[in-house]
Amino acid sequence: MPVNALPHGICRDCLTPANTASRRCRSCGSPRMLAHAELDRLSLAHVDCDAFYASVEKRDNPALRDRPVIIGGGKRGVVSTACYIARIHGVRSAMPMFKALEACPEAVVVKPDMEKYSRVGRQVRSMMEALTPMVEPLSIDEAFLDLAGTEKLHAARAALVLARFARQVEEEVGITVSVGLSYCKFLAKVASDLDKPRGFSVIGQEEAISFLQKQPVTLIWGVGKAFAATLGKDGIRTIGQLQTMERNELMRRYGTMGDRLYHLSRGMDERGVKPRSEAKSVSSETTFNTDLSRMEDLVPVLRALSERVSARLKEADIAGRTVVLKLKTADFRLRTRNRQLGDPTRLADRIFHTGLELLKREVDGTRFRLLGIGVSDLTDAGRADPQDLVDGLSHKRALAEGAIDSLREKFGKQAVETGYTFGRSKVARPQRDGED
């Protein structure tokens, strides 16, 4: 069938073109029909893996398939993600773990395995990049795709290509994705959330105004609880109310945010898909089960986190010039300290010792619930860690670290440990990681 002759309906199971009026596929009988009047004209999509971490764990452990699963740290940690069964009980991402277990006491709690999730995320990402070079990752498990101009390559319109992709991910990766298809990034992201899991929703240009009219203002990016409360005080609770207001009035009231409210409330979003946004920093952090205040307890954690950051830098072949230490006190006050190095580094030894100097200034009896370390000002690894003519031992430490990396790659992470972490794996093991 010629590309231009694509009808306005597709069966998402067998991928057979279908009439828009069909409620079930005439070929396979599936009710998972995708139909829309603009289906053959839209090419901008947002793809989001469904409950990603939990889905990967359920894939790898079939015994968890019908159980509520929460991915997160210990009782003092927070929920990284929860499967849809747990969500029915009220469990949400970023919820404190103790509250999540109160809401769903029968849940199975699984500590996050970020390296495994990263591998699966890269697998899905490579499948996206096989569809189009215009892929803009937002996180490990979601991205925007622009398939405009790829019709001849795939001999199919974007909707059919994306339906094939969703089925391929299920068959080859073993997890599910939800797809939002529209004419702009804002509505593509909104569409991907409409029918999770295994969703495929379409918002066309002709229906954008009427669709948005009924939605709450919190649907707009940047409108959180605080700003929604501000709008509520002014009597504005729905996007439809914003659609009746002039741009100048909105900007007079809310500044630059008013300009965003004006445009997005009308489905106007000129931002294009930007392939592979450059990472700004690489970091790793952990929330403790009990507050820590002594150097002897904090140092092993700092060392383990530094090694985690170093491994990521080496894997990505990048380095950072600024070391950033992050601490959160028992009363949730955040402290961030940083130091710029003379040369970029990707060595755990340099990251750790720089972070250690920063940490010593903060340890004064204060109890900490979180510790993190990272690097920013990222650059190519070719400029990293030149031999230090002043510190003659730095080159030997770098060689030793390279030998340790080789042994760990061959025999596993626990094959070699430094004296900082040896025998303290439970204390030093990071519970939750962050990466920008």
From TrEMBL:
UmuC domain segment(s): 44-224
UniProt cofactor note: Binds 2 magnesium ions per subunit.
Active site: residue positions: E142
Residues flagged as site, Substrate discrimination: Y53
Top-rank EC class of the record's enzyme: transferase
EC number assigned by the record: 2.7.7.7
Principal location class: cytoplasm
Origin superkingdom: Bacteria
Family annotation (SUPFAM superfamilies): DNA/RNA polymerases, Lesion bypass DNA polymerase (Y-family), little finger domain
Protein location: Cytoplasm
Residues noted as binding Mg(2+) in the record, renumbered to the chain: D48, D141
Cofactor(s) the record lists: Mg(2+)
Keyword set includes Lipid metabolism: no
Record's catalysed reaction(s): DNA(n) + a 2'-deoxyribonucleoside 5'-triphosphate = DNA(n+1) + diphosphate
Keywords (A to Z) from UniProt: Cytoplasm, DNA damage, DNA repair, DNA replication, DNA-binding, DNA-directed DNA polymerase, Magnesium, Metal-binding, Mutator protein, Nucleotidyltransferase, Transferase
Subunit structure: Monomer.
Function per UniProt: Poorly processive, error-prone DNA polymerase involved in untargeted mutagenesis. Copies undamaged DNA at stalled replication forks, which arise in vivo from mismatched or misaligned primer ends. These misaligned primers can be extended by PolIV. Exhibits no 3'-5' exonuclease (proofreading) activity. May be involved in translesional synthesis, in conjunction with the beta clamp from PolIII.
Family the entry assigns: Belongs to the DNA polymerase type-Y family.
Protein name according to UniProt: DNA polymerase IV
Organism from which the protein derives: Nitratireductor aquimarinus
Organism placement in taxonomy: Bacteria, Pseudomonadati, Pseudomonadota, Alphaproteobacteria, Hyphomicrobiales
